[in-house]
Amino acid sequence: MDLKKTNAPVNTITYNKSKLEEPTGNIYEAITIMAKRANQINTEIKKELIEKLEEFATYNDSLEEVFENKEQIEVSKFYEKLPKPHALAVQEWEEGKIYYREAK
């Protein structure tokens, strides 16, 4: 998933309920599918962020020294400015990028 190329909203917006429930015919089922996808996206983002921050990790036992690493701050700011996982999931849902199937 390329987070830089997404056009998901960063702020809260109102969605058309009938458009969201259209693929399944049930708004609760659609929300459940989007919530599961949002959890997956959140896990991916968290894993990616931890990997990038590990590059800057310093392992010192002294609590007195606090290092300010500008690169680490920039990475953190980038991830803070990203759209939230639920906004990304709703965007994918509206674009038909989420695969789902009914359990039988």
Automatic annotation (TrEMBL):
InterPro entries, per the entry: Pol_omega/Rpo6/RPB6, RPB6/omega-like_sf
What EC identifiers does the entry list?
Answer: 2.7.7.6
Which UniProt keywords are listed? DNA-directed RNA polymerase, Transcription
Instruction: Provide a GO CC annotation, any one.
Output: DNA-directed RNA polymerase complex
Reaction catalysis annotation: RNA(n) + a ribonucleoside 5'-triphosphate = RNA(n+1) + diphosphate
GO terms, molecular function:
DNA binding; DNA-directed RNA polymerase activity
For whether the record's keyword set contains DNA damage, the answer is no
What Gene Ontology terms for biological process does this UniProt record contain?
Answer: DNA-templated transcription
The protein's matches in Pfam families, at most eight in alphabetical order, are given as: RNA_pol_Rpb6
Q: Which family does it belong to?
A: Belongs to the RNA polymerase subunit omega family.
Its name, as the record gives it, is DNA-directed RNA polymerase subunit omega
What organism does the UniProt record list as the source?
Flavobacterium cheniae
Q: What is the lineage of its organism?
A: Bacteria, Pseudomonadati, Bacteroidota, Flavobacteriia, Flavobacteriales
